[in-house]
Amino acid sequence: MIARDRLDALLARERAAFVATHPRSAEANAAAGNLFGRVPMTWMNKAATGLPVYAARARGARLTDVDGHDYVDFCLGDTAAMAGHSPPAVVAAVTDRLASGGGLATMLPTEDAARVGTELARRFGVPRWSFTLTATDANRWAIRLLRALTGRPRILVNSYCYHGSVDESLIVVGPDGNAASRPGNVGAPSDVTTTSRVAEYNDLAGLERELAHGDVAAVLMEPALTNIGIVLPSPGYLAGVRELTRRHGSYLVNDETHTFSAGPGGATAAWGLEPDVVTIGKAIGGGIPVGAYGLSEPLADLLGARADLDLVDMGGVGGTLAGNPLSLTAARATLEHVLTATAFEGMTSVATAFADGVRDIVAGAGLPWSVTQLGARVEYRFRSPAPTSGGASAAATDPLLEDYLHAYLLNRGVLLTPFHNMALMSPDTTLADVATHHEVFAAAIAELTS
Ligand code: PMP
Fold it and tell me: Could you say which of 309, 338, 367 is where a domain stops?
């Protein structure tokens, strides 16, 4: 049992300790008055200690802040650095392109792009790829194409999903069971319940009810939810989604941006899924911005035959720097040399050690928590059994407890993903790094429960 007054006191102690040991970070923060929210991007204020970690350097699975503290980094840029920070093969390829006058912003195709397309097709099973700068844009452009093709107005997503700042995705199943705008949704261009439909993850009956309206162009989903804790599919759920989408004439988009952790071809390959479109971003660039969407052959053919769609100018799909030479050089190096099948084997076995160790500590403390693994990614939740939908998962959050664990770990050199208790393994993450986490995590729990 966790005593809440004890939790409050420990969290205050950890926050004060962080501020006291990070004077240069505090100075950097004080000097940032011309930044909105004092940070380069407002999400960076999601800091358990109240003060962001100001990174000075990052290599492999390690990060050093401006105050000289070292961290084992299990956040890895919320997956953008799943290949490890500054992977040598990517740094070499990118440096070579920069130094050799390869051109950074030509808006012309490069040979690297075709290689990346071939590799993504081999891994994810869909054969026609196009590039963006972010996973958000991959999702945006994919759903525009699918609306155009079907003539249907709506997109269906899972409640408490995250697919980037995609207007159509900011919808939840509300407390009364009806669709509602996601709490906090900033400046929606229109009522999201008129552009979208929503079903709870793992709820095939709910999905069928919504698809039966016949107005859903596409279901956009992560094969497993990863942004409200990890929520894994119940047996038969993903096959049911595929069957229902086919029956109701809706396309299926697998957003593999995070579920890529399941293996070299993401959950799509690991679980034998058959989406019409795969979207991805972040990790495939090894730290350099890139996103991508891949289309099935029939879908690409149908789109290619639509002369009325402006795909080569201002029709709403495309961007000046999308597919730029630097992004594609980085993606090619990442896929060919860093996030290989062999690397995934190692990352997954380190993640299994992470999950097993956390389970042991939690069981030893008699806490009713659960641990979920998705290949190279692990998450602990304050509920057992693990929630099976986004709504249930949202209800199981405990922000103060989360902040306490994050702050305690940070003060002892371990960085978790700030948005939840998520730990990602890179090819450079070692069993010793995992042991470091476990030692500190066990101490955090002991102080809380003693
Ligand atoms: N899809 C998923 C599943 C994500 O987790 C995210 C980011 N967390 C995105 C898309 C958007 O990525 P980005 O912010 O790089 O556009």
Answer: 338
Q: How far is the CA of 440 from the centre of ligand 1 (A)?
A: 29
Partnered with residue 374 across adjacent β-strands are 377
Among 405, 278, 343, smallest CA distance to 14 is for: 405
Residues 331 and 379 in one domain: no
Please report the atom of ligand 1 found closest to the CA of residue 282: 15
H or E stretch covering 371:
strand 370-374
The reported pLDDT for the residue numbered 1 is 73
| CATH code: domain of residue 19 | 3.90.1150.10
Residue with tokens 């699918």: 146
* Domain count across the chain: 2
| 279 and 373 co-located in one domain | no
pLDDT of residue 224: 98
Residues of the chain with pLDDT under 70: none
Q: Are residues 272 and 140 in the same domain?
A: yes
163 Cα: distance to centroid of ligand 1 (angstroms): 5
Residues with CB under 6 A from ligand 1: 78, 134-136, 162-164, 222, 227, 255, 257-258, 281-282
Pocket of ligand 1, candidates 42, 157, 163: which has the most ligand atoms within 8 Å of its Cβ, to mutate? 163
Residue nearest to atom 4 of ligand 1 (CA): 163
State the pLDDT at residue 76: 98
**pLDDT score of 103:** 87
Last residue of a domain, one of 274, 306, 338: 338
Name the residue range of residue 151's domain: 89-338
Q: How high is the pLDDT of residue 450?
A: 83
- In 3-state terms, what secondary structure has residue 233? coil
pTM > 0.95: yes or no: yes
